[in-house]
Fold this protein.
Amino acid sequence: MELAALAVLARQIWVIWLLALFTGIILWVYWPRRRPIYERASRIPFDDQGKV
């Protein structure tokens, strides 16, 4: 296998890996079980407990 062919193969594998990683992160964030965690985190700026 030539170096140029190896570079093309590595580039294709890299793109597939990044697409799988992106899809995994999106699924992890939007999974229904995580909704309460993000709802609590979204209310943090509105908590008025005098914390600075």
About this structure: The mean pLDDT is 90. DSSP finds two helices and no strands in the chain.
